[in-house]
Amino acid sequence: MTLTLDPIAWTDVGAVTDIPLRGARRVPTAQGDIAIFRTGDGAVFALKDACPHKGGPLSQGMVHGRAVACPLHGWNIDLATGEPMGADHGKGCTPTIPLRVEQGRLLLGRA
Length: 111
Ligand code: FES
Hints:
With about 110 residues, the chain is mostly beta strands. Helix content is about 0%, strand content about 35%. It is globular and about 45 Å long. Keywords: 2Fe-2S, Iron, Iron-sulfur, Metal-binding, Nitrate assimilation, Oxidoreductase. GO terms for molecular function: 2 iron, 2 sulfur cluster binding; metal ion binding; nitrite reductase [NAD(P)H] activity.
């Protein structure tokens, strides 16, 4: 049996090094703003740029570990899942966006 996988369109949105360690960048798209994060150990993640609480701009939050603290009310959002952490776990979820790195370039995906 041969599986047919849906293709993902990948868009080059810049160099990994454009984003400082423990930093973030907002990428405006036709589907809304996307936040790309780079952790202290160099991992990268992409989420819709909207907090699951009241839509705060996560790209302006503080990255710590594998999470970002929302700049509006301080919820901590898991960068890998988009889910609030700690006492706010289970109160919504920010959609994750496919992201990969190829030859130092950030490729943002959309199924
Ligand atoms: S909008 Fe993010 S914590 Fe309230």
